Amino acid sequence: MDNILEVIGVSKHYTGHKALDDVSISIAPGTVYGLLGPNGAGKTTLIRIINHITAPDSGTVMFDGHTLTADDVSQIGYLPEERGLYKKMKVGEQAIFFARLKGLSKADATTQLKRWFDKFGISDWWDKKIEELSKGMAQKVQFIVTVLHRPKLLIFDEPFSGFDPINANLLKQEILQLRDEGSTIIFSTHNMGSVEEICSDITLINKGKNILTGNVDELRHRFSDGRCSLTFTGDPRLLMERLQPMSSEFFLDEPKGAEQRLELKLAPEVKLRDVIAAANEATDLIEVGRVMASMNDIFIKTVKQTENND
Question: Which keywords, in A-to-Z order, does the entry hold (predicted)?
Answer without folding.
Answer: ATP-binding, Nodulation, Nucleotide-binding, Transport
